[in-house]
């Protein structure tokens, strides 16, 4: 199965999303690079709104991710509650 | 009451559908084929536009909100960087030359993407893809402007930035990226989507905006880092658009497969050739390097691109043949390109230099199969010549590939000591290409590629001198006249980094800043 | 590395790019609007002709009959580049979002008086499609126009109109069930009240001269439609049923006031260039004015009933005064 990845700028705001990914995707691996954080995982990465909200202590709209997202690879499936990147559709 | 609650619970997808595709209608006072005249001639068959899956579902209000937030952050950094003379915190002023290549060679492409997506965003019959294309068109004008604004401050203090709009239309190596985009935009709208939405955005921009920009950050350029990463966050949307478009075509009709396959083959190769410039920027022009071109290629092209092609295999898409050659080339092209620019440094709008001994060692380590064997001896020889006051400049003009327009500098995949040439006949004329990939592109559409404005041909035809130049006058020197036509300030924008005005100024200004 | 640079003053080699300096009268500090606009579009040495329009270069002055010595004579008085544009729109959307949230939380759609609701739905919702037509027409100008000074704001206008179509959609969802949007589309497609307008919009969709299209859409049609709907009809609804609809269409009112400044500046520049341009622009204006007036008459009636003719003729009078002020002869 192909690997997917997603990368964020290394900022305070992105922290909550990165932590939420690590919490909900046990297979995910973090790779730190200058000014950016790249997360890889076999098959899929799912970002759950509820987890991010728990971690940052406020309401979070998954589209806010646009502000610190750098890049990703895979198909995107977006709903109000989840943002999923995967190679299976 | 219950009904009202149900109405409020519309999910993102349903809501977005009402906000976009619900807006369109089938015209009846004017035929649809007249309203959308360009989306059929390429032979792509679309039976049901409503099957389009929107990749990102942003309404305009959300778009304004989040993009404005990104812009506020970006311009705060650009302002701070300029106000604090951030350019003096760079590792080394050689780095600035990557930015010159960026503003002259890449920023104008962002502009073309803006116009190209406005065109496709008007012409595709489906509302879903049209909205996504227009949003991309808007993002792309953002990219060109944030790049120009970030580099505006460099232009004030360094040479080589001052005439980027003029140069992209004329300078020999800038016709490489220019013709790439001219090729895409003059193709039909579906081919444009493969060329830019898929090949350029999905397969290639990661290589530019991720490892290279990470390298900019590593070299102390906060401005470039911010516009780069900030642009790439839009690219995430663009890539999913490109991918969706390809799947949509393949799912709509089996007859689309061979057409799409040919475009993928063509544009993967066109893009790979353009990336030669990025390879050279990463290996030679970044004073501190995050990773080699080869490593970046392996992660972002072989690994990610591989995952993508695995996914497309279920539609019958095959990995393009050219990947075989690209895999061999990844160990060569950055060195071959830099060797070329070094030789033609008198006609380039940035400075060139030979790597320092420790940099050559890094290259040996990153390219164990090729650097010491094929490139180091030549580079050491040139470095030695320069030390003796005999900096080598090549004064002849190179032959260009009719398709990618790169000088004939690439070698045979089977023999790195042989320059690769291919030849085609069309209407009694011979045309030269640099590779099997470019030859096959030429042979498929010769009537298009014979139109190419090849800078070297144009010089020989006398079209690249200032209006007041007289080539028939005794003692006429073509090179300085060509440089004038380019608006390239001879002795300031070009030649070796060693001894350049940029080098002197950077050293003097940094001394001012760090000493009493 | 930490460098204390506060005391360092270094002299710049130049203030701006050559092509910007050439247009702003020499090497002096340029604004972000200027550096992000001037000269960005390629003009020379194109490599290939478009397969889809081989009679033209990729960007070609001959795509309109309007003639300009310098296409960068057009200027956007708002000085919008992407950053200033989005930041401005983000402010406007924040205000609009607050209005919508307020109305949604208090369920103002449900308590809105039935007759006024019917009228609002009948008039406003089919206008989603008119806004979408404008999105297409302005993206046409952005794609095939000449020079970033005019094509850039056309794309912003296209996206704004998409935003307006989306705000109108939200009004529909606030006032009623989603099916109401289908009903409105059916009216747009079939109802006699809407056919002259749909016919005019579809004729614009096939208009090939982009500056004619700019005039037809941004100057003439919107120059009648916005005052008619967002002032006259909105006022009449407010008199009958309170300010809810005025709140929810505030974006359109503010937007029209702002974008008119840009449209006016562009018309004025085109007309002032030459007597040929003046005649051409006047001619286009007259043609599309007659067309738009006739197309809007039944819509005005739908929105205003008996008073519609008077209202439309007042709007028309104002428009003619505006045109005269800009040098357009009607």
From TrEMBL, chain A:
Family to which this protein belongs: Belongs to the TmoD/XamoD family.
Tagged with keyword Metal-binding: no
Keywords, alphabetical: Monooxygenase, Oxidoreductase
Protein name in UniProt: Phenol 2-monooxygenase P2 subunit
InterPro entries reported in the protein's UniProt record: MOase_MmoB_DmpM, mOase_MmoB_DmpM_sf
Pfam families named among the record's database cross-references: MmoB_DmpM
Molecular function, one GO term: monooxygenase activity
From TrEMBL, chain B:
Limits of the YHS domain: 411-453
GO MF annotation list: monooxygenase activity
Pfam families, A to Z: Phenol_Hydrox, YHS
Keywords assigned: Monooxygenase, Oxidoreductase
CDD domains in alphabetical order: AAMH_A
Domain of life: Bacteria
Protein name from the UniProt record: Phenol hydroxylase P3 protein
UniProtKB/TrEMBL annotation, chain C:
Chain segments annotated as coiled-coil in the UniProt record: none
Pfam families: Phenol_Hydrox
Swiss-Prot/TrEMBL keywords: Monooxygenase, Oxidoreductase
Acetylation among keywords: no
InterPro entries attached to this UniProt entry: Ferritin-like_SF, MP_mOase_hydro, Phenol_Hydrox, RNR-like
Top-level lineage group: Bacteria
GO molecular function, one term: oxidoreductase activity, acting on paired donors, with incorporation or reduction of molecular oxygen, NAD(P)H as one donor, and incorporation of one atom of oxygen
Protein name (record): Phenol hydroxylase P1 protein
